Amino acid sequence: MRAFILVLFLVSLIYDSFSQNRPNHCGTTSYYQYQLSVNPDLANIRQDLEIKTHDFVKANRGTGSKEIVVIPVVVHVIYYNAVQNISDAQVLSQIEVLNEDYRRLNADTTNTPSLFTSVAADCQIQFCLAAQDPNGNWTNGITRTQTTKTSFDINTDEAKYTSTGGHDIWDRNKYLNIWVVPSIRDGSYTGILGYAQLPGGGASTDGVVIQYSNFGRIGNLSPYYNLGRTVTHEVGHWFNLYHVWGDDGTGCWGSDYVDDTPNQADENYNCPSFPEPSCNNTSDMYSNYMDYTDDDCMNIFTEGQKLRMWATINNYRSSLKTSPGCLVNSVPEVKQNRSLVNIFPNPAVSSVLFNFDETFSGLISVYSIQGLLIGHYTLNSTKDFVLDVNSWQSGLYVAIIRNSAYVEVKKIEILK
Ligand SMILES: [Zn+2]
Questions:
Q1: 3-class DSSP assignment, residue 215
Q2: N or C: lower Cβ tally within 10 Å for the chain?
Q3: What's the confidence (pLDDT) of residue 334?
Q4: What is the Å distance from ligand 1's center to 290 Cα?
Q5: CATH 3.40.390.10 domain locations along the chain
Q6: How far is the CA of 16 from the centre of ligand 1 (A)?
Q7: How far is the CA of 27 from the centre of ligand 1 (A)?
Q8: CATH topology assigned to domain 341-414
Q9: In whole angstroms, what is the distance from residue 393 CA to residue 404 CA?
Q10: Distance from C-alpha of 410 to C-alpha of 366, rounded to nearest angstrom
Q11: 144 vs 40, 165, 331, CA distance in Å?
Q12: Strand pairing partners for 78?
């Protein structure tokens, strides 16, 4: 059985290139072919990973683990012009989308066809913007680099190196790196929204690259791919998921190595009406994040996909589970001369009011005194923000209030 699976796996890698003949907005399979061409050992590394993944899935199916992992994220904004230098709020909106989609807290779960709701998964994966950089210093989790390049080719990976107009990676053992770039091309083809490195590739290139106009759900976004699902999809690849149709062109033999996604002929675009059958299935799972449908059509990962991702979290990417990336190691220096916000009551019991001198757009991040992230809160032209602390335990907390021009740190005491 295992030999059969491995043969299929290798064949599917060979036939990945079939999909290049079709309109293709994910560069991951093409990028993998490029990486394989410069590093033939990658096939063996991936084969070994696939065996480990298969064994993990077999051993852990149906165990119902309650574990939740929090993945520290750094977003490298690489911009040519001001529009591409996206706001902190746009970055935050993408982190929110990831946290909804990977916890099945997205508002559009109601659109999942009933045929598939029994396999829909809370993947128990969360994401936080980094609070300390690789040197342990305070960071807001966003780097900004002006570049002279207007597009970045997946075959040269220039976005991932400072020396070629991008930004060097932060240690992939501590962070998920996301590079946001002006545009992406694959040779002369320019329709790519994003691409990811599958587990097994090089340490200096390990992450996800996204076009700025498909990143987050606020800002200057392109039609159809404007709800942050491109990143949900690419991060799925980074966790070792394949496309649901199995990357076999239009055949029915390719597999995503997940047993609760229907066998599917090829990718879907736009948003089909249920049912959309192929390969003798009742319907393709076209609303899966690993298909090619519009952002407002996507709403589901499955239990089988979750297991594959957790195989990666517990093996290949296990160092992320103990990463200090989201712990506040040192509080930032206050940039301004006077405070812009008052917090009361303090100590508080059930709620805390943040009262700003004037309307404020930015982010409030709250940490326990031990440095653990409690939550991020995005403010958009807000004068009074009420934080519900009913479920919080007594103790000291640190709130970091920030936008691109301002940072302020406040202590909050909760008394029950
Ligand atoms: Zn893809």
A1: coil
A2: N
A3: 59
A4: 6
A5: 2-322
A6: 11
A7: 7
A8: Immunoglobulin-like (2.60.40)
A9: 31
A10: 9
A11: 34, 12, 20
A12: 145
Phi/psi of residue 61, nearest 5 degrees = -60, 125
**Cβ neighbours of residue 82 closer than 8 Å, sequence gap 6 or more:** none
For ligand 1, the distance from its centroid to the CA atom of residue 28, given in whole angstroms, is: 6
At residue 8, the pLDDT reads: 41
Instruction: Tell me which residue has tokens 């480990």.
Output: 52
- Give the three-class secondary structure for 382: strand
Question: What parts of the chain have a pLDDT lower than 50?
Answer: 1-22
- Cβ neighbour number for residue 231 with a 10 Å cutoff: 28
- The Cα–Cα gap between 135 and 370 comes to 19
Helix (H, G, I), strand (E, B) or coil at 246: coil
Give CATH 2.60.40.3080 domain extents, the chain.
341-414
| Structure letter (DSSP) for residue 2 | H
Q: Residue count of the chain, please give it.
A: 416
Contact 318, 311 (CB under 8 A): no
pLDDT value, residue 275: 98
Residue 26 Cα, ligand 1 centroid: separation in angstroms? 5
Could you give the count of Cα atoms lying within 13 Å of 392 in the half-sphere of its Cβ? 24
Does the annotation mark 234 as catalytic?
yes
User: Residue 340's pLDDT is what?
Assistant: 87
Give residue 89's pLDDT.
Answer: 84
Amino acid 88: pLDDT: 86
Q: How far is the CA of 352 from the centre of ligand 1 (A)?
A: 42
Asked if the 2-322 domain carries CATH number 3.40.50.80, the reply is: no
Catalytic residue among 96, 158, 234, 267: 234
Per-residue confidence (pLDDT) for residue 16, from 0 to 100: 41
Amino acid at residue number 359: T
**Predicted structure pTM score:** 0.87
Q: What angle do CA 174, 179, 182 make, to 5 degrees?
A: 175
Q: Which residue has the tokens 């852990």?
A: 60
CA 243–ligand 1 middle distance (angstroms): 6
Please say whether the beta carbons of 254 and 245 come within 8 A.
yes
The pLDDT, as a whole number, for residue 5 is 43
